[in-house]
Amino acid sequence: MQLSPDLEKAILSGIIHGFATPDSVAPAELSKQGRVALGVLRELAGQRVPTPYPVDHVVLAATDLFGVKKEVFATFITEVVATQAGQAPNEILRKVRDKQLLLDVINEASEQLGKHTLDIGLVSGLFQRDSGGGRAVAVSERLKDAWPEAPKGLALASLPRLTHYTGGIHGMWAVAGTPGSGKSTLAWQIALDAGRHTPVLYYDFENGFSYLMDRTREIFNGDRSKATEATQRVFYRDSIRSLDYDLSVVGAPALLVLDSVQKLPSSLEFRRAGLDRWIHRLELLKHRGYYVVIVSEVGRASYDSDPYIGAFKETGEIEYSADVGVQLIESGGDLVELHIVKNRHRPYRGLVAPLQRRKVKWLWKELGTSEGQEID
């Protein structure tokens, strides 16, 4: 793909002034004169000539190395420098980054189309990445006034011990357990708890709205006014297809809950790769300021094993991408054990507390700790 004349001149000017490196652009992207200029600039960089490169030095090197007509090339390089003379370095850098972003988007889309698929969300996620900008700042300069504010997660008032050991919901959480262990109960409790203060997008592929509301009716003892008040910030979906639209309406910070990751759409032939791609896409959202909680099954081979992050079913990407991994282990009756199996930013791993059903069936409470606040 050949660049526009303005973008070509912006990038070459950035290289001449030392704001960009010669590998910021490929020869095939440039005009004939641009390719000559890039060849010269790469040669000067290899010789460790200090920037900015004088115009007459660049012209002389071009005539010696490539035998170009001095007058014609001098006019081109003069235009390159003059066109960008009024632009700040960060503006030139922005153009370089925009060019690279465009290539990344084209390459990603081409790769997907080669596999006869197109994930618009993953492609659009490239536009959301932090591109940085401006000059690099020494850490000492950023610390000269005070320590930065410590990261804060979403506190779960109903599960104080879990909040204490993890710092609250932050980044990406993964909640796993065997079928019927209470994963969906915990996921909906987290949504109701966080929804007191934060918008929640709840994607439910397991239960259906009527069943979930039947449980909610029991949680609030049939009091529809309490349930209505508690769910003002909670938005329900039974399909992930609306994700991009939902994110455009509900901006960060907000919580996304997906129950469960194994039900995300993917082809049968490439199921593992499809699920890993979904995890990668959700990981991009945490860098945009969203909190993400995903529910996962445990592989059948791990039903009777000790809790560990590798037991999460089908997608190894969870093991690497999750900041916190929580696993429910049934211990009989209305009790399950809540284990932290991954805790990226805190040292604690292990049993948090036994969980018992509250006075209603569809809520958990921690045993052996100070009583958490009731959802209702």
General description of the model:
A hairpin with a 6-residue loop joins strand 8 (350-357) and strand 9. The mean pLDDT is 84. This protein is an alpha/beta fold. It has helices at 5-17, 32-46, 55-66, 70-83, 89-114, 120-125, 139-142, 160-166, 183-194, 209-219, 224-230, 243-249, 271-287, 317-321; strands at 172-177, 200-204, 234-237, 255-259, 291-297, 324-332, 335-343, 350-357, 364-366. It has two domains: 5-118; 160-366, P-loop containing nucleotide triphosphate hydrolases (Rossmann fold, 3-Layer(aba) Sandwich). The termini are far apart. The chain is built from 14 helices and nine strands. The protein has a nine-stranded mixed sheet, sandwiched between helices. Helix 1 (5-17) packs across helix 4 (70-83) and helix 2 packs across helix 3 (55-66).
Structure summary:
This protein is 41% helix and 15% strand.
CATH class category name of the largest domain: Alpha Beta
Quick one: how many beta strands? 9
Order of adjacent strands in the largest pleated sheet: 3-2-4-5-1-6-7-8-9
Whole-number count of domains: 2
Low-confidence stretches: none
Classify the oligomer: single chain
Mean pLDDT: 84
Radius of gyration: 27 Å
Structural class: alpha/beta
Supply the number of helical segments: 14
What tags apply to this protein structure?
single chain, 376 residues, alpha/beta, Rossmann fold, 2 domains, nine-stranded mixed sheet, 41% helix, elongated
